[in-house]
Amino acid sequence: MKSIAIIPARMGSSRFPGKPMKKIHGVPMIGHCYFRTSMCNELLDTYVATCDQEIFDYIESINGKVVMTSGTHERATDRTAEAMLKIEGIIGEKIDLVVMVQGDEPMVTPDMISESLQPLYEDSSINVVNLMADMGSCEEFEDPNEVKVVVDNFSNAIYFSREPIPSRKKGFEHVPMLKQVCIIPFRRDYLLKFNDTPETNLERIESVDMMRIIENGEKVRMVMTEAKSFSVDTQEDLLSVEEKMKNDQLMRRYK
What we know:
It is built from 9 helices and 12 strands.
């Protein structure tokens, strides 16, 4: 199967403006995402999709591949789909799988990309996959910037929320505390179908794209990763991730 990764990124984040170009150990965050994603040997190629000239110029300066997209997109999936179609025009063929890697996941690893792709290789009925991980603290569980997920016995998502789910207030000492990790592979045609499907009520309420799939009676396969990954939504997150990446081995392989 022909698989590519697309990293949607824009400077106008409402929660942390300009965050793709914020530096971690001297490298802009979008650079970490690009270098680390492109290390996955299962990918035909890795691209950044952006509407901002500053990001475009930086990716070109590191000899990366980048596609300029519309500035009107409100969702990362819309930007990813536009970029995918442009890339197909460039390479002259359709791709099979597109892995959307959010540009605020600077600790992504090539193994995480591989983990997310595996169910799509094994089961043709699966159209979209999300990684998930255990949360390490109650503080992280309570953080509204972290998207939580509960799953069924078949590892399909039941519900996503920025609220702490399931509830810890019913007398249970331990509950599963799982977070969405924004490495999301789609089958090509399913990504286009997803973007043609109207936004849903719970998707708006929770501000989580994947709720659109669940509300329409379809499935999101979740895959557990043991890798430690932390998204960056605030300046405090940036400082925390910089500390966590002090002894990161993959940084030595950046080219």
